[in-house]
What we know:
- The chain is an alpha/beta fold.
- The chain is built from nine helices and 13 strands.
- It has helices at 14-31, 43-46, 62-69, 128-140, 154-162, 173-178, 213-222, 228-243, 295-311; strands at 6-10, 35-39, 75-79, 91-95, 104-108, 121-124, 145-148, 168-172, 187-188, 203-208, 252-261, 264-275, 282-290.
- Strands 2-1-3-10-4 form a five-stranded mixed beta sheet, sandwiched between helices. The chain has a five-stranded mixed beta sheet with strand order 7-6-8-5-9, sandwiched between helices. The chain has a three-stranded antiparallel beta sheet with strand order 11-12-13.
- Strand 1, helix 1 (14-31) and strand 2 (35-39) form a beta-alpha-beta unit.
- The longest helix has 18 residues, at 14-31.
- The termini are far apart.
Amino acid sequence: MRDKALRLGTRRSKLAMAQSGQVAEAVSQVTGRPVELVEITTYGDVSREHLAQIGGTGVFVTALRDALLRGEVDFAVHSLKDLPTAQPEELALAAVPVREDPRDVIVARDARKFTDLPRGARIGTGSPRRTAQLNAYARAHGLDIETVPIRGNVDTRIRYVHDGELDAVVLAAAGLNRIGRIDEVTDFLSVDTVLPAPGQGALAIECRAGHTAQDTALVAALGELDDPFTRVAVTAERSLLAALEAGCSAPVGALADLLADGQIVKEMRLRGVVGTTDGTRTVQLSTTGPVPETHDQALALGRELAAEMLAQGAAGLMGERAQ
């Protein structure tokens, strides 16, 4: 049984295959078993509609979870920012490995930075969160930009720039790192300019929640890849998102980062932002406190900041709140 290959469910995109391949190697090391990738097509991969119209990035997750529950795969790898905030009881979030760079980046013509783009620059993004924050920054700093809704994989998005259809596109640094294309970035957007999506840069390794001895053993083995600091950070971010009753495609940014004194981590700062997509109104707040030591403490941190944001009118800036 020890040598039987574990089946890892993954989306078919180049990025999903790259990050699943990296996880497969790590799982093989901790379990001593080979890992085979099982490619699964999701509705989000085949639909041509904009993500916000088909339920946000959660559409990438459902097919993988169904394959897990049917026993067709043993575990699955998701981009954590795609996971709906409610965790199904039958499935365990077994590991959140060390997070990649959570920032958003620009790939622009003529190697330009965001603030150097020409007047009227057309910037492509499929994310209401990025649209809201880019437009808010542009308004505050006298920049003249037009955000253009786009879909497609990394290749498709960067091609819009190379073909001259767009002046720039916004992508996640983590994804470009994982597929070896980070050298194409022309500007790293500071988190003070654009807060990332809750969980951005982190992966989620999910499996069945221990209903058999094999499931229990796999949960334990996968747990060796878990990074406690990453987990409490993304738990706080996703708790904020859930408390705002906002879905994966809502214009909500959040980042929990650890504040260190030398080598010693002292505190965690959680920042959250929500805004109208035209950038005219935003609510942005932060809170700093002791690093959460439990899952419940991390949840509480997110809920507390969300309550402050709602008190300042955040709900009215998100359009229809997710049900």
